[in-house]
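Hi V.,

You were right to ask for the full record rather than a summary. Here it is.
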Amino acid sequence: MVRTSAAVLLSLILVVVTMQSFTFAAPDSMNGQGNQMMLASNGKGKYGVFVSSNADAIERHAAQELVNYLTQVTGAPFQLSEGTTPPAGPLFVVGRNALTENLIPELAGDSLGVDGFVIRAAQRYIIIAGSDPRGTMYGVNYFLDYYVGVKWYSPSYTFVPTNPNLRLRVTNDVQVPRFEYREMYVNDGNNEQYRAHNLLNGKYRDRSIHVPQSEPWLDSWSSYWPYDVHNFKKIVPQTQYHHGNQLLAMNESVRSIAAGNLVQLITQRVNEGKDASYGFSQEDTTWNPDPDSLAFANQHGGSLAAPVMDMVGDIATRVKTEIPDARTGTLAYMFTEEAPTGMTLPDNVVITFAPIYKDHGRALNDPKNSFSKANIEQWAQMSDHILFWDYIMDFSGGGYLMPYPSLYAMSETIQYLATLPAVKGYFGEHIVGNTAPISTGLTDLRAWVGARLLWNPDQDYRELIDEFVNGYYGDAAPYISQYITLLHEAFEQSDSTLTISTPITSPFLSFDLMRQIDGLFDQAVAATNDPVSLNHVQRTRIEVDYTILMRYVDYMSEARKRNIQWDPDYDNRYARFKTYTADIINYKSKGTMESLYRLIDIRRTLPTIPDFVSGLPDSDWIDFQDHMFWLYEPAGTTLVSDAAASDQAAAKVKGSTNQWAIQLHDTVLPREGQWKLYANVRVDPGTGSPGTIAFNYGFNSPSGGGRTSMDYAHVADGAYSFVEFPWVYEYNPNQPNRYFWLAPPNSSAIANLYVDRIIAVRQ
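Predicted structure:
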């Protein structure tokens, strides 16, 4: 058990006392009705806990947890008994049995579903029971949380209040979650109990990575979401039926083979005691459809989802004739996100709607996400079984450690989805794999708030944020609250977009914002001497330190332009950063902490000002240094120290590749005006000669673009020189993903290509 400081403890006890006067979800309790129960007085327990001898492992464990936490809270030794008949005296009765079925008729029906439960005072009993053991488990966890005040804030931190005189009001509290499937996919290791405590029932991690089997008292995860994704070629392995990265969707042989193989896979699952479902969905890439599939798409609004869904629906119907309760899962994702017209789907198909290209910093029903909003509403007209896959973390840009203001958007998205009856599940993806950080930044906050909204989306998410912050950060809470507010306001007021690859150089992470919030964390650290709360503050501060360490030269340049005295305190900041990231394996997908440390170890200096812009106003030119580039890492592209570069660092790639290895994307380019770009480039000479290509460079755009090359003779001396891109750039919101690129010649003409910076000059 871990406790916060005295001030925060007092505030949480007051919250608990308030909750003892009513329960949030029961209408009669809101009017002050219900029975006042004295559970403990002066450290003496007034109630026992009873569980039937016929109870399973889940119900027994739930009853034992009730005993353990009530004992911790009150200091009273609550006793657990089991048998066929409850003993005398006041009792908690945990689980469904003959007694509770008699007192709570709802347990025998289907109104509670698998996860719902009832907390009810009847005769001398307080009954906590669901129709299913999982519902009983959630009932006990809910009771300890909402009634008693135990808070499972993170995988490693639980707040347990102290109250030797525990009195609370128990009424007729009937709880059924809004979403049938609920998962916040965070890196909580194997702490499944943390997820169950917070009423989450998803276990996606077993789909992608083998982990130890759940303990018997937790092995009751939802089977609503069919197993496996991105498996077209696995289900139909014959290559003659593969086309354009996917399948020949309208081909009868494809459908017959897929149906037969799915029947076998589902039968095997049933024989193993698992649910009768399996996924059948597109590969995680694009599709160049065959003529028959394209023709079918054109008959249904031009959506490539049409032939895919026709195929999946047909196959699901065939499988169901062999296995009546079989369900098939598939994706509305990337090229299938757009809903087709004039189609319906069989009731045994579960659609996972995964709008990976939406702005994850804004709610699904925000005008900037109108495309995805319109599509999910159309899908909801076609199917009653939709699961929403949300992306609430950066995977491959700035990575897991960068400030990522998705908290408000996530909360509002969940609340909007709750208005669509067809949406039965939610999957909030924080990580790729299981090597992402644990409890850094705002990860624990997002997971906790998301879990509560998935159970009851009618709660005020701002109040939930405040509750978590007060309980998790102790005396530092006011400063963390300001940080959360400022971060989200800065994003909202910017023209930035949150994607799964948002760069650390995004404009919303401005010098003014980072300087202000860095000061807030200084105050947060000074405000608390409690080591637990202090650790939470420092683990959250990781994302601030990371941003400043990666961008300190940018910020120093800004300070120089504005005559502001600012010291990044680089050495002390880096030492603190390494202390609190020592347990982290990957800071982004496929990016190790060791590789990040090597990047930070490249000590930069304030860059020189190029002669050709020295007389221009600061507003008319922009210096994009190498850390603002997107680097194609599979080709070995990396950042290196380079004494010849303007800031002592550059992007480097070997000459024996033709990849567009170094790119500057429109996510960081100006949003107004017309600009010419100039790259500062040098090479390590190889076997090239005048007339051979030293490197290629160009501009990529959905509407065209172009490419050109540099003659070896112009760079043979190995010195840096500026190369003009022969295009004028102007931002176009209707053409995303435009970028400038440089690529080696894929020859021995040069040994290595270096790019120091790219200068943009207003036209």
